[in-house]
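Hey, weird one. I pasted the TonB-dependent hemoglobin/transferrin/lactoferrin family receptor sequence into the form twice and got a warning about non-standard characters only the second time. First submission, copied straight from the form history:
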Amino acid sequence: METRIIVAAGLLLGGCAIAAQAQEARPRPNHPAAPAASEPAGTDEPVMLEPVTVVAERAKRQLLDVPATVTVISDKELKSHMVRDIDDLTRYEPGITVSRNSSSTDPFGGNGGFTIRGVGGNRIQMRVDGSRILDGNTDGTRDFVDLPFIKSVEIIRGPASALYGTDAVGGLVAFTTKDPADIIKEGRNWGLEASTNFDSYNKALVNTALGAWRVSPNLEILLGYSVKKASEAKLSRARADGGRYGCPRWVEYGAIDCGTFNPLDELGQNFLAKVVWRPTESLELKLTGEIFDRNRDVDSLYNRGPTTVRTPANPNPPQLPFIHSWTGSQELTRYRIALDGLWKPEYAFADQIRWNITWSPQRREVTSREHRTLANGNQQYQDNVTEFGQRFLQAGLQIDSSFKLGRSDHKLVWGFDGEYGYTDYVRNRTTRVFTPGGVPVSNATVVPYTWNFADSNTKRLDAFVQDEISLLDGKLLITPALRYSWNQITPKPKSDYQPVPGYVLRQREESALTKKLGIIYKLNETYSVYGLYAEGFRMPNAEQLYTGSSSGLPDNNLVPAPELKPERVRSFEAGLRGRYGWGYFSLSAFHADYTNFIQNFVEIPASSGSGVDYTWANRAKVRLTGIEGSAEVQWAENWSSSLSLTYQYGNQKTTRDAPWTPFNGASPFTAVASLRWTRPEQGLEVEMIGTFASKVSRTSTPDIFKPGGYAVFDLLGSWKPTENLTLRAGIFNVADTRYFRWPLPGSYSRTASSSVAFSNPLELQTAAGRTFKLGANITF
């Protein structure tokens, strides 16, 4: 299978190369590096416009002029690929994945967070219009973004702390929402956009409406509303019998099998409002209000039946206690109010000055009710509430300057970022017990002893500077950057916080100077080489520093880690690029050294002297090396192809003296190739996309499950019968292939105990089988 995948990918790559050579062999005019949008259409061959980034350098740059690997996903691509959520967002981005929550501790079956170049979780900074998205905690999602109002997504691969501060040690995902100018067509004072999209994967129906008005030459308004209704996902290629794990669930009592998600109803609503005011030609003020609200109601059926898991040694355990029902609700909310300013003064030291202030409270709330019969026949009803929230007040100032110094040209970006954040955690449980005849036995509301989370506040104050230096008439670009970050986190435990004996909560304060140096040398008008050195810094968060729990026993306790060191990374990257009027390519290699890498739930000797406890701990080192490539060729008037690929190799040391072992986050060879045909005069576009991955061959221990290789094909098409209407359809995983995407969240062993097979089946990590999407978009 692996050989066929590599051969198929090689043939596609070879096809792109042959097409490129054929284009070079034909006489053609000299194309500019970035052709203007107004260039006449009557040229001899197609011209491809180069993507533009505004996040990677905190300034507008052509993508191939940035000494880093950056992905820009435009609004057009989001629509043409019918992107459903953040998991869909990375479907065609090798080396970037989004985890799926499928364990019993999170029965809502949602997305987790991004993994970039092998590292994920809170090591990836996520932003919406510059506003931070809350941290993930144990079994908690970071999926706090729906995509109907997003006009572009930029993904920086590798550390971005020099420009964006703590948490961006593995990369940055930046979402940018639409402005009134994106909806109002040229020559009009208003614009409307409406869309509807259906996805068979989870029966999702998303309806969106956006309106924008130019009230006066200086004032524009945008209003948007989107609603999504969905059910649980269907994994048509997951095995009901649990596959290699088996399925010990009590299906005969109404439990679901091991290849099925819990029944679920989802309702998501999004609101976006913007007011853009330009009181003068040099000043723009933008006021933004955003509401994200997603509710999921689940009927958890995986554990229906006796609470004792049957095993081969005990196939008929006692029937009591017995769980009759478990229902839950998860509500995710993110609110944002932001004021952004852009001023272009007539000062020698500043071309433009940007500032922003944002207030964004975000919350994840889970409520549940369980009914069970106890061993003595009494009826127990238990209500649980778990809440995790963060409130961010952020402010920033950025000054852009350009000047000449001798024979060099400079583009200077410098400024300040400040942030105050408050993290709070709420957990309580109400238990009511009745006799079989309904007589009350007990009624108590307590904080479960199994988890103690100290609230905290966080203060951050950063200063940054970057200078893009152009030498040799623009052939050589040198871009150094520095950022000083000061971070303080202070525990604020509530009265019900139960400290773990021997561990004292204390304030932590850390500072760091992170550096970046990028170099681009243009060999000629077509080819360039680049190099990048970048550092990253991440402060431990409140959960890792201050969380503890008690098992009620001398061991098996979770203890805080107040002495954790910040994670740091040094990354090196180099590459070769080529740009043509009809396409481009980029090929690069990277190496990253992570120190003080924080691992969750590390075994340590129990304080009682017997058994083990668990905590968070710094790994000695993680090393990741890889290659990445991308290319796009428009080789005929109606035909174009693209290719992107990655391969990663990682090792880790769990302690200073431990041997090097494979790092599970590294991605095997993965490639995505597409073939696109368009007929603009008829409003038609068809695209075939293939994803190819080799098998996983290296894991930290031999008993970890290693998925095989796969090849998956998608077919997408659109038709624009009128100027205002676009219809879209797509078939995904056309051949209904069974496969697993790597890396998987956590570590799944080749075999599992009955309790693991019961609560966390491997089958729920299979990728979706054949699904289809339909959509329509109307603009006025």
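That's the output from the first submission. The warning seems to come from a hidden character in my clipboard, not from the data itself. DSSP finds seven helices and 37 strands in the chain.
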